[in-house]
Design goal:
Blueprint: E1 2-6, E2 9-12, E3 17-24, E4 29-38, E5 45-50, E6 56-58, E7 66-70, E8 76-81, E9 90-101, E10 107-113, E11 117-122
Parallel strand pairs: 2-11
Antiparallel strand pairs: 1-3, 3-8, 4-5, 4-9, 5-6, 7-8, 9-10, 9-11
């Protein structure tokens, strides 16, 4: 199972970007999806998450500016970023809780991360 992130880039303050993350491989379903980021000299922080039922949560620093959505197949998800600020500059990582088949008829939930995609916001 792999997560492939894309969509980062350089944007001016106030601009918009959309990050994408696609799950591939042999799995049953993608459950909770989320985005995290790590700015220069900072620890990785949670940004936003979305459950299969559509409920979303956002970090205070991005609430009202970012949105997280999923395709109907639930295997691809996005981070829509608007009103970008220089402090949003970071490497962004996608995360998914993915259910895979275990032994017999059992399934198991695992945590998967995509590679980072760099977002740079210039002032």
């Amino acid at each position: 199972v792999q997560l492939q992130a894309s969509g980062g880039g350089l944007v001016q303050a106030g601009g918009s970007l959309r990050l994408s993350c696609a799950a591939s491989g042999n799995f049953v379903r993608v459950k909770v999806v989320a985005w995290h980021r790590q700015g220069p000299g900072k620890q990785r922080e949670w940004v936003a998450s979305r459950s299969r039922d559509g409920s979303t949560k956002f970090a205070e620093s991005v609430r009202g500016r970012f949105d997280i959505s999923r395709e109907k197949d639930e295997n691809t998800f996005y981070l829509h970023m608007e009103g970008l600020k220089p402090e949003d500059t970071a490497e962004y990582f996608c995360y998914a809780q993915i259910e895979t088949r275990g032994k017999g008829w059992s399934t198991v939930d695992g945590d998967y991360w995509g590679q980072g995609t760099q977002v740079t916001v210039s002032s």
